[in-house]
Amino acid sequence: MSNKQPSSEIYFSTAADHLGLSDRLRRLLLTPERDVKVQVAIRLDNGDLETFLGYRVQHDGARGPMKGGLRYHPEVDDGEVQTLAQLMTWKTAVVDLPYGGAKGGIAVDPRKLSKAELERLTRKFVDQIHDMVGPDSDIPAPDMGTNSQVMAWFMNQYQTHHGFQPACVTGKPLELHGCEGREEATGRGVVIIAERLFQKLGQSLAGKTVALQGFGNVGSFTGKFLYERGARVIAITDVRGGVRDPLGRGLDIPQLLEYARHNNGVQGFPGTEPLTNEELFSQNVDLLIPAALGGQLTAATAPLVRAKYIVEAANDPTTPEADEIFHKNNVVVVPDILANAGGVTVSYFEWVQNRSVVRWPLEEIRQKLEQKMSAAFDAVWQIAQDKKLPLRTAAYILGIGRVAHATELAGVS
Ligand code: NAD
After folding, report:
1. Residue 90 gets which letter from DSSP?
2. Which residue from 5, 51, 180, 345 has the highest number of Cβ atoms inside 10 Å of its Cβ?
3. Angle CA(151)–CA(156)–CA(162) in degrees, nearest 5?
């Protein structure tokens, strides 16, 4: 973990200055309520013992039960989970869900474990943290390296301790109290936001050229919906490499999805040229969408960016130094806490359905998602216009303002 101040705290300070928050309230809002690190020891398939570190940070519960993903990635550490938990607090407030923020993860490369090992790892982690999470306190969901299968194991193991509690986790399979449209939700939300941005500018998403980093859950659905709405995705990278359409007409995303499924990534898709991440960032496109790791747009990579618009599908993809460069270069950045909030929004719909033992049809969920995302975008846009601020600062002002207000109303016992 580096000693550098996390980007979320720097963005927080700027917004807190605009809101005129006292130092005491700032300290309260920045301090996580609970920060837990646990040992997760399992037997590997070959009989060896392996020990991993698991984390859960509950950042703030002023507005409701804390909500946040569970990430399986080798670079997961306390600092990263703290930053991501804090982002969840502001994100749930920006889209006005009755939640606070949390995040968790295990420092592991899930691609190096068998399915049986992943299941044991998940169940062991649940055994270690089950008494601090639950439908009324802290509700995990999928993030990088986890999926609906991991959520199913999570729920099943949680229920061995607490009985029937499907609302203890979201992003579950449809057959196990999951929600229609949850898997596509983050990507769908990203595209709703991109469309709204161009509408506000009197332009259209259709016909715009796009470079996309990441083709996992979020990246692939983002690509699919961009394609369906007539945008041209001309370059994509994933962890193994990247591809570019040399003719600039736009990649055939449905075919690329099929190809990536069978070839473990986008690399080598017929009719394309290979591409690195640096080359992806410097593509002459209208819109750049980071949908992979955090910290990708830095002081080193930001000057390469030629796109005039960035929509942050990934969490924390832009360092404050890069953000400054984008501001100077008049690049409009739609921040993660707004752009990728579609996932947590549909997670909320799943939780509501689980608690009321009802099931909503896909069309209803898509409509509700569109309403939530559009309302949040419009609120952030209005603050940005009124105060002449970048969208990131405006989103932080909206999110932090709501949490600060709830905190003051409730008081401290
Ligand atoms: P995922 O594991 O499904 O996919 C990650 C993708 O990133 C993969 O295509 C992988 O190949 C690619 N990638 C990894 N390292 C890379 C590198 N060095 N260069 C280029 N590509 C690389 O994860 P996901 O769920 O799609 O999450 C992606 C991002 O979106 C994360 O930042 C996550 O926190 C954020 N996010 C996810 C959700 C969700 O609902 N899953 C919600 C909000 C935000």
Report:
1. H
2. 345
3. 120
Taking CA atoms only, the protein residue closest to ligand 1 atom 37 is: 143
In angstroms, rounded to a whole number, what is the distance separating the alpha carbons of residues 395 and 387? 12
* Nearest residue to 376 (alpha-carbon basis) of 196, 185, 184: 196
Over residues 4-56, the pLDDT tens digits come to 788 889 999 999 999 999 999 999 999 999 999 999 999 999 999 999 999 99
User: DSSP letter at 318?
Assistant: B
Instruction: Please indicate whether residue 280, judged by its CB atom, sits closer than 6 Å to ligand 1.
Output: no
Query: Which residues neighbour 273 within 8 Å (Cβ) at sequence distance 6 or greater?
Result: 243, 244, 246
**Is residue 86 packed enough to be buried (19+ CB in 10 Å), middle (13-18) or exposed (0-12)?**
buried
For ligand 1, atom 17, the nearest C-alpha belongs to 239
Q: Is 340 in the pocket of ligand 1 (CB under 6 A)?
A: yes
The pTM for the full model equals 0.96
Residue 129, SS3? helix
Instruction: Assess whether the C-beta atom of 80 lies below 6 angstroms from ligand 1.
Output: no
* DSSP secondary structure, 349-402, as one string: HHHHHHHHT----HHHHHHHHHHHHHHHHHHHHHHHHHHT--HHHHHHHHHHHH
- Beta carbon of 245 within 6 Å of any ligand 1 atom: no
